[in-house]
Amino acid sequence: MTSEQLAWKIRRHGVEMTHLSGGSHIGAVMSVADVIAVLYAEILNFDIENPKSENRDRFILSKGHAGAAIYAALAESGFFETEELKTHYQNGSRLSGHVSHHVPGVDFSTGSLGHGLSAAAGMALAAKQDGKSHKNYVILGDGECNEGSVWEAALFAVHFGLDNLICIVDHNKMQSLDFCDNTLSSTPLAGIWQSFGWNVIEIDGNSHDQCRESLKSIQANGKPTVIIANTIKGKGVSYMENDILWHYRFPHDGWEYDMAVSELHKAKPDGVEDPYTPDGIINPAIPPEDADIFKDHTMSATYKPTWFGKEKQL
């Protein structure tokens, strides 16, 4: 399977998984799908028959709320049956809403932001000390870079020369309820990482060519590497793109689900089959005229607190 085919599958599974479960974070799944697809289709060394192989590359999705993307990539790579994806976020399922290490192919449970880079740095140091040649990859969210533990780990990695550590920041420029720069600015993000002593590569994170070229270009030179992957929140579904509403919301029955599936079908690569709606959706529902769509739902645009009886714009 090509990375482009896998990215489409990740997005299609992500829409279905959150739709069935009423789970959230579809926007984060869509933004990081291309990076994850290139990693699993072309970069990572893993063995589906032996998920704990000592020679495998380690991978941590530190922004664990986008766990549906990893579950989809693992299932499509053969770690477990894709049918199990339908149990995502359901009671009793091992496919928890945030990434769980109980799932084959997952090295570290995540979801409490700020921990992934620390764990990956520890794995990278252990590999160095044991004379191992595998690489250690971690994906962070840009909002996650507000966590102090990220920068402690960044200093640690430089101090110990962990050139077997590759960090990818999913820089979709949105977090929680707003744009990152309205929440706690970390601009310029690349410059901050560079000032900490990291090798820095900045790319279009939704471009497969740039993702693979950057990942394949990394050389061991005594420094860890960070790739700032500029992405679009909700990439692939027009009404989700750059709308913070879809950080938490899931595609409901009706036009939300139908429109998402229909738009994905229009962009479906050759050689890919949709396991849920093979022929798309016949006569898909469309948004009504009063649909809450293509609007700025950020807190800075919508929150108007009342103070002493007077409404103020935040």
Walk me through what this model shows:
The chain is α/β, with parallel strands linked by helices. The protein contains eleven helices and nine strands. The protein has helices at about 5-20, 25-45, 65-75, 115-130, 150-160, 180-185, 190-195, 210-215, 245-250, 255-265, 300; strands at about 60, 135-140, 165-170, 175, 180, 200-205, 225-230, 305, 310. The protein has a five-stranded parallel beta sheet with strand order 1-2-3-7-6, sandwiched between helices. Strand 6, helix 8 (about 210-215) and strand 7 form a beta-alpha-beta unit. The model has no long low-confidence stretch (mean pLDDT about 95).
Provide key terms for this protein:
single chain; 314 residues; alpha/beta; five-stranded parallel beta sheet; two-stranded antiparallel sheet; 9 strands; 37% helix; 12% strand; globular
Oligomer designation: single chain
Total number of helices: 11
Assign an overall shape: globular
Given helix and strand content, the structural type is: alpha/beta
Order of helices and strands: HHEHHEHEEEHHEHEHHHEE
Report Rg.
Answer: 20 Å
Q: State the end-to-end distance.
A: 48 Å
What proportion of the residues is helical, as a percent range? 25-40%
Main pleated-sheet profile: 5 strands, parallel
What ranges have pLDDT less than 50 throughout 5 or more consecutive residues?
A: none
The side-by-side strand order for the widest beta sheet comes to: 1-2-3-7-6
List how many beta strands DSSP finds: 9
Please state roughly what percent of the residues sit in beta strands, choosing from under 5%, 5-15%, 15-25%, 25-35%, 35-45% or over 45%. Answer: 5-15%
Mean of residue pLDDT? 96
